[in-house]
Each structure stands twice: as structure tokens, then as C-alpha cells.
């Protein structure tokens, strides 16, 4: 989705005069000369929120669970961010989409945001079906108490669920990519287009490092 947004954004937006202007500049110019910098700062904050939110949730799950496609647990964990929203990691992904989409052309940004939203809604629905079959009425109670993607304002308690102990090291190990992505976004915010090679290079390094970590944890 990101590749499609960045690659197809310019040609799709060209007929509308939106070929290569970043979405943050296109939006920000409507708020004066300082608007683009402020919108980009907000986009950078979104990527940071993604990292913090995912690291918080991963600290309760551990890296081996977060990056294991076949991971199953014997208990329903309702603690940390999971007391506010059932899918904090997916919510974090959307914050990352908001941040990165701001650098793409407006049409590309729309593709990235819409694609991510549809994917997360579909994936969270599929996983809810799996959890419902596994935990039955307990998960149904959790669904009634905690929203899927839009957080509640106060922490929920679900009778029969399990609590956990957050492990910061596990959270950081799980979020190598989002952590490096945050640093890349900060570099772009500080240095602008001059940092684009660094920005893309850091994302590649983060993806490779996360892939190697995932492979090791799944071995």
C-alpha cells in the first residue's frame, strides 16, 4: 500500500496539479506559511505515537508472540493498552500510516490511508472471529467492554481475563522497525527533502533488522 501510494500518487495526481507536492505541504499551505511545518510536525508525532503504542502493547505480549504468525495463548490478556482498545498494535499502525502518508502526494496519501484502514478493519474482524471461537463468552464480554480500534477513555476490567507484567525490553525488541521509522521521520522533519535518501535508507535497514529478528524468534 505504501509503495502504491508513493509510486502511483504522482501520475494519478498530475492531472489535478498534485503530482509531487507532499500532502503535508498541500494541507499546510491552507494555514499560512508556517502551516506545512506544523502539519509535518503533527505527522512526525503520529509516527512517534505508533512506536510508543506498539511498544506498550508488545511489552505485555512479548516479541515472540507479536511476530509469530501461529502464536496462540491459553489466557485472554486484558492489561495495559488492551484495557482501552482491543487492537492497540493495529491502531499504532494507522498512526504510522498518517505520518508516512503526509510525505506522499495527496492522491497517494489517500491510497495509503484508505488501504490501511480497510486492511486493519478486515484483519481485526478476522482475528475477533478466531478469538471468539477460542475464548467464547469471555471474549464476548471483552468485546462489549472494549472497542476494537477507537479507544475508550477509561481502562476496562473483564472478569475472568488475565493481567500481565510489562517487560520494556520485550517491547523494544518487538518494535525495531517502528523505532527506526520514528528516527527516520524525525530526520525528515529536521532536514526536509535533503534527508530523503537517509529516510528511505533507514526504513530499509529497519525492515531488514525486524525481518531478521522475526525469523530468529520464529525459529
Question: Could you walk me through the main structural features you see in this protein, from its secondary elements to its overall organization?
Answer:
It is a single chain. The protein is an all-alpha fold. Helix content is 68%, strand content 0%. It contains ten helices and no strands.
- For the termini, the CA-CA separation is 28 Å
What share of residues is helical? 55-70%
**Overall strand count:** 0
- Residue share in β-strands: under 5%
CATH fold-level assignment of the domain at 2-58 and 69-164:
Four Helix Bundle (Hemerythrin (Met), subunit A)
Query: So how many helices?
Result: 10
pLDDT < 50 runs, ≥5 residues: none
Given helix and strand content, the structural type is mainly alpha
CATH hierarchy, class of the domain at 2-58 and 69-164: Mainly Alpha
Q: At CATH's second level, what is the architecture of the domain at 2-58 and 69-164?
A: Up-down Bundle
Mass-distribution shape: globular
H-E string: HHHHHHHHHH
CA gyration radius, whole angstroms: 19 Å
Average of pLDDT: 89
The main pleated sheet reads as: none
Amino acid at each position: 500500500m505504501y509503495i502504491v501510494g508513493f509510486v502511483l500518487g504522482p501520475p494519478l495526481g498530475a492531472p489535478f496539479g498534485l503530482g509531487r507536492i507532499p500532502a503535508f505541504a498541500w494541507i499546510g499551505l491552507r494555514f499560512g506559511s508556517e502551516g506545512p511545518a506544523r502539519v509535518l510536525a503533527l505527522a512526525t508525532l503520529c509516527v512517534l505515537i505508533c512506536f510508543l503504542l506498539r511498544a506498550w502493547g508488545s511489552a505485555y505480549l512479548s516479541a515472540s508472540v507479536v511476530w509469530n504468525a501461529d502464536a496462540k495463548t491459553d489466557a485472554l490478556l486484558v492489561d495495559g493498552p488492551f484495557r482501552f482498545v482491543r487492537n492497540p498494535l493495529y491502531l499504532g499502525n494507522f498512526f504510522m500510516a498518517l505520518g508516512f502518508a503526509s510525505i506522499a502526494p495527496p492522491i497517494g496519501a489517500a491510497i495509503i490511508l484508505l488501504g490501511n484502514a480497510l486492511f486493519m478493519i478486515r484483519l481485526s474482524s478476522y482475528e475477533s472471529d478466531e478469538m471468539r471461537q477460542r475464548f467464547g463468552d469471555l471474549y464476548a464480554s471483552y468485546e462489549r467492554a472494549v472497542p476494537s480500534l477507537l479507544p475508550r477513555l477509561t481502562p476496562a476490567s473483564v472478569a475472568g481475563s488475565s493481567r500481565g507484567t510489562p517487560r520494556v525490553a520485550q517491547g523494544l525488541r518487538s518494535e525495531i522497525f517502528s523505532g527506526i521509522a520514528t528516527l527516520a521521520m524525525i530526520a525528515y522533519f529536521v532536514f526536509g527533502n535533503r534527508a530523503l535518501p537517509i529516510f528511505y535508507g533507514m526504513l530499509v535497514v529497519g525492515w531488514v533488522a525486524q525481518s531478521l529478528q522475526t525469523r530468529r524468534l520464529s525459529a
